[in-house]
Amino acid sequence: MNPERLDERFFSQDAVTVARLLLGKTLVRVFPDGSVGRYRITETEAYLGEADKACHASKGRTPRTEVMYHKAGKIYVYLIYGMYWMLNFVTGPEGSPQAVLIRGLDDLRGSGKVGRLLSVDKNFYGEELQNSPRMWVEDAPELSDFETAARVGIDYAGEEWKNKPWRFIALR
DNA sequence: CCAGTGATCAGG
DNA sequence: CTGATCACTGGA
Fold this sequence. Notes:
Elements: H1 8-11, H2 15-22, E1 26-30, E2 36-48, E3 75-80, E4 84-91, E5 98-105, E6 108-109, H3 111-117, E7 135-138, E8 146-149, H4 159-162, E9 167-170
Antiparallel strand pairs: 1-2, 1-7, 2-5, 2-9, 3-4, 4-5, 5-6, 8-9
The structure holds a DNA duplex (12 and 12 nucleotides).
């Protein structure tokens, strides 16, 4: 049986659950030249809705955060520091703005490096992983060997939110 | 430690 | 329009 492409059912779970379950799953990218890259997801972070001060949606619905209010399984990308494209997947029920940031693939760590490796840019904004011809996620056995940590780069979020253990790191 | 680099958003 | 801010990285 071929690996199943993960769809809206999978991504509709809450962001913390999806961030954990994505560890070990296979991210597939078909590049413009037709070459195919397959990567094991090794680090993720969860951003859990308007209440989460670290989540972009804590500032409400704007053109940038709009896609997080859409149905799960869409791609949320944005440019940070004028140089780095962050790759996120929308999760949770429709209307509940949640997302999971992809921070590591195989041995590569760092969300900025992930965007560079995959040649992500604003054209991916809103694309659906269940339909896209150039990016999707395939199922793989659940990975139990991982650790959690606080999320990176969100000191502005305040004590309650910045210490949530919503960063998931695959071991081995 | 800190500079680079430009979209985004709130405020006039 | 202005200006602060930023889910980062790489090099002193």
